[in-house]
Amino acid sequence: MKFLRNLMATVAVFSVTVVPAFAHTSIVSSNIEDGSQIETAPASFDFSFGADIGLAGLDLETLDGEPVKVAFERPREMGKSFSVPLPMLEPGTYVLKWRAVAKDGHVMKGEVDFTITG
Ligand SMILES: [Cu+2]
């Protein structure tokens, strides 16, 4: 019985650590893909997650880490799809950094790197 109890405890711990990972999501589609080379910057960054999230932040930087101003307003509601207007971008490489809060309160982060070839 001791073995069974240990086994159950192990299974319980394993479930607790594994299940929340499934609740997390990331960008599943976007008009600017990570690592993409695009001729002209789109007027907005349109992106969707696999589940409802609270979009907490979106920052745009040049490759050197110079911030580029983006008209981002934190949405009040959770959602899956977002559209953030982008400024006119000169040719160069940029990094979009997003932060989101999952339904379980965990913070998720990601980056989308792209190059405007001009
Ligand atoms: Cu979580």
How would you explain this protein's 3D organization?
The chain is of the alpha+beta class and 118 residues long. The chain has one domain: Immunoglobulin-like. A hairpin with a 4-residue loop joins strand 3 and strand 4. It is elongated and about 65 Å long. The structure holds copper (II) ion. Copper (II) ion binds next to helix 1.
Question: Secondary-structure map with pairings?
Answer:
Blueprint lengths: L1 H22 L3 E4 L5 E3 L5 E19 L4 E2 L10 E7 L6 E10 L5 E10 L2
Parallel strand pairs: 2-7
Antiparallel strand pairs: 1-3, 3-4, 3-5, 3-6, 6-7
The structure holds copper (II) ion (CU).
The site of copper (II) ion has 6 residues, from helix 1.
CATH topology: Immunoglobulin-like
> Which molecules other than protein and nucleic acid are bound?
copper (II) ion
Strand percentage, roughly?
A: over 45%
Specify the CATH architecture. Answer: Sandwich
- What is the chains' assembly state? single chain
Radius of gyration from the alpha-carbon trace, in angstroms: 19 Å
Indicate the overall shape: elongated
Helix content: 10-25%
Average pLDDT number: 88
Query: Uncertain segments of ≥5 residues (pLDDT<50)?
Result: none
Number of helices: 1
The structural domain count equals: 1
Summed up, what is this model?
This protein has 118 residues and is of the alpha+beta class.
